[in-house]
């Protein structure tokens, strides 16, 4: 029995050319009444002028009701939300929704509506198992082209692991996904994918551009959805998906395996680097060969068995765990097999892939604007192709740099607001600051507490910015007023929103 009370029809044929006793299986209509339209007013930060916000805009997407009086949709559907409302299929009323949690890495958000009227006459969807290749799927939602609910049908064409993308930002978490050949258009985001038994098997969240391929859409599958839901129920908040804090390479080359003293029957992946702030750094080392994770053997190409005839990247095993869980890792080190138990955590790269919905941090002294680097910041400066357009040093840090402390940030001089006191520094743009204090907050504190005659900032390529301390501090209020800036700084930490005024 599915959630809307429609059962799978199974009967016995008695005529119409069918053999007596043949079962008749009727396709179940999914619970369309559980699919809602999501309206969101967004107010995005302005990374080019971090003390301002961009002009607000509205968007529509899809969502669906689940048990516990909850609504699921995509995280990118409510990114930088100011107000979120939802509307039922047959209703002309928009109900105010409260955002409970946002899982940026998995692109899922959970909402609720406190108005009891909203929940009258509707039943939540029920989740089904992960579908197999060629299983039929139906995407329901409210895409562009009309105001009423729309459905598109297709089949599962691939199950793999993918970098989730949110608002053109490649996220640093790898998750499993379903590839389908049903159309997923703008507005479909957050809508459910139903199987032919009426159960929800995923959430529509992105598609390939038409100039790259036709009818290739991606669906977040039920294991990721259930992990998101159970994480919230278990911890009372979204804590994220853990990752194994290593960079690794495949071991398909026979000479490489021989050089690493691997026996013919041994398979695995080589650790290139271990994140210094990850718990794994206490036991794992560079050039260790990871042979298995939680008792599952890893192949030389980094895959593990999945279902009959299918293999999947071993990061899938990691994604099934929760932050704080322990996992057994078997490694080969100097021809010796070692077994370790490691605690998994959610780690953050030096250049984070997103800002968790928060505005950018900045600090201004004598017109010199300092800020921190993130993927949204890079995109605002260098466009959608920031990986190729950004300076080489920034691109290298984006791809390869690891944090050496949980609160480390990459600080840059974003620009210099022209003034008599900073003459000669106007040309400095997006220059990295070479500091030992690790983050922008510490830099601001050191400047504010400085009693030396001069402030000196060391930049990349051995450039320096030198300002007389008393003059710089005295000139700052006038520079802020000239440029209509009401606050000298906004310093946001990774774990909480704090302002140093």
Count of alpha/pi helices = 8
Number of domain units:
4
User: What is the CATH topology descriptor of the largest domain?
Assistant: N-terminal domain of MutM-like DNA repair proteins
Rg (C-alpha, Å): 26 Å
Share of residues in helices: 10-25%
User: First CA to last CA: what distance?
Assistant: 58 Å
Percentage of residues in strands: 25-35%
Structural class: alpha+beta
Beta strand count: 29
Question: What's the multimeric state?
Answer: single chain
Shape: flat
Would you kindly provide a written description of the structure presented here, covering whatever features stand out?
The structure is a single chain. The protein is an alpha+beta fold and 501 residues long. The protein has four domains: 25-119, Trypsin-like serine proteases (Thrombin, subunit H), CATH 2.40.10; 135-235, Trypsin-like serine proteases (Thrombin, subunit H, Beta Barrel), CATH 2.40.10.10; 246-344, Roll (Pdz3 Domain); 362-490, N-terminal domain of MutM-like DNA repair proteins (Alpha-Beta Barrel). Helix content is 14%, strand content 34%. It contains eight helices and 29 strands. The chain has helices spanning 222-235, 254-259, 315-319, 375-382, 386-389, 392-400, 440-448, 469-482, and strands at residues 10-12, 23-25, 35-42, 57-66, 70-73, 81-87, 95-103, 108-112, 136-141, 150-166, 169-180, 192-194, 200-207, 217-221, 246-249, 269-274, 289-293, 296-297, 303-305, 311-313, 326-333, 336-343, 362-365, 368-372, 411-416, 431-432, 454-458, 464-468, 489-490. The strands form seven sheets. It has a six-stranded antiparallel barrel with strand order 3-4-5-8-7-6. The protein is flat and about 75 Å long. The N and C termini lie far apart (58 Å). Mean pLDDT is 85; it is low at 1-21, 163-174 and 494-501.
